[in-house]
Design goal:
It contains one helix and two strands, in the order αββ. 24% of the residues lie in helices and 28% in strands.
Length: 46
C-alpha cells in the first residue's frame, strides 16, 4: 500500500483541506467507506 491508496493518509489529506485558521463551522468527523473516522475532524482549526 502506498500513500495514494492508504486510507489513513488519504483521510489526513482530506481533513487538511478542510482545516481553517480562523473561525470555522465544525462539520464533524470524516466519513470513509461508510464508516465514521472520529480522529479526522472536518472544519476544525489547525
Amino acid at each position: 500500500m502506498n500513500e495514494s491508496t492508504d486510507p489513513a493518509s488519504a483521510a489526513d489529506r482530506i481533513t487538511a483541506g478542510y482545516a481553517f485558521t480562523g473561525p470555522a463551522l465544525d462539520l464533524g468527523a470524516l466519513l470513509w467507506d461508510g464508516g465514521c473516522l472520529p480522529g479526522h475532524q472536518i472544519g476544525r482549526r489547525r
